[in-house]
Amino acid sequence: MKFKYIAPLGCLAFATIFASCEKKQTEVKSNGAVPAKQAEAPALNIAYVELEALESQYQFFIETKSKLEARSKKYDQELNRLGQSLQKAGADFQQKIQQGKFTTQAEAEAAQKKLMNQQAQLEQKQMKYAQELAEEQAKFNEALQDSLSNFLNDYNKSHKYSMILSKAGGNILVADKSLDITADVISGLNQRYKKSSK
């Protein structure tokens, strides 16, 4: 029964909006003021670049990402090795305590202090490596952004796009493939990278 009132309410709301718009138009005309000519919007010439394709085809991205991953793997291996060494030293320490192999309290305290220093060194290395990788990642991101921006600024001098968008994930839901300049951009970026790396 409630559904019967929805359609008339919708029509009433539409009629009210339409009437208020019509009233404003008649008020403008009755004042004698000439409506200003609407400025025509300039034609937009838009293009887009697929960022996922840049990640898989831009040599600078591929090489730098590979170097970062190799460094990260090296750090992980070293930290794992140091962590295993620390675990073994901790187990040995516990075993010596349980078996009463420390002859004096001072000897046990010295072994415990050594173990704690080893743990502190491991934690310092973890922090140092994490910071180094974060700094390298930030430099890489900045260099990538600069490279792309500089190239697109030069590229756009001859192509005169009003806007060049990035397409990544789902930020552009539907786009005409004729607006896709990704292949052209990747080719140009790779040519620039080859010249700069010589």
Describe the structure.
The chain has 198 residues and is mainly alpha-helical. It has one domain (46-196). Helix content is 73%, strand content 5%. It has 5 helices and 2 strands, in the order αβαααβα. It has helices spanning 6-31, 51-57, 59-99, 105-159, 182-196; strands at 46-50, 163-167. It has a two-stranded parallel ribbon. α3 (59-99) packs antiparallel against α4. It is rod-shaped, with a radius of gyration of 34 Å. The model is unreliable at 1-29 (pLDDT under 50).
List the helices and strands and how they pair.
Blueprint: H1 6-31, E1 46-50, H2 51-57, H3 59-99, H4 105-159, E2 163-167, H5 182-196
Parallel strand pairs: 1-2
Helix pairs in contact: 3-4, 4-5
Keywords:
lipoprotein; 2 strands; two-stranded parallel sheet; Lipoprotein; Skp_dom_sf; mainly alpha; 198 residues; single chain; unfolded protein binding
Quick synopsis:
With about 200 residues, the chain is mainly alpha-helical.
Instruction: Give the percentage of residues in beta strands.
Output: 5-15%
What oligomeric state do the depicted chains represent?
single chain
- Domain count: 1
Side by side, the strands of the main sheet go: 1-2
Largest pleated sheet: 2 strands, parallel
The helix tally amounts to: 5
Give the topology string: H per helix, E per strand.
Answer: HEHHHEH
The strand count comes to: 2
Mean pLDDT rating: 83
> What class would the helix/strand composition place it in?
mainly alpha
First-to-last CA distance: 79 Å
Low-confidence runs: 1-29
How would the global form be characterised? rod-shaped
Share of helix among residues?
over 70%
Task: Using the CA coordinates, give the radius of gyration.
Answer: 34 Å
GO molecular function, one term: unfolded protein binding
Family: Belongs to the Skp family.
Keywords: Coiled coil, Lipoprotein, Signal
GO cellular component, one term: cytosol
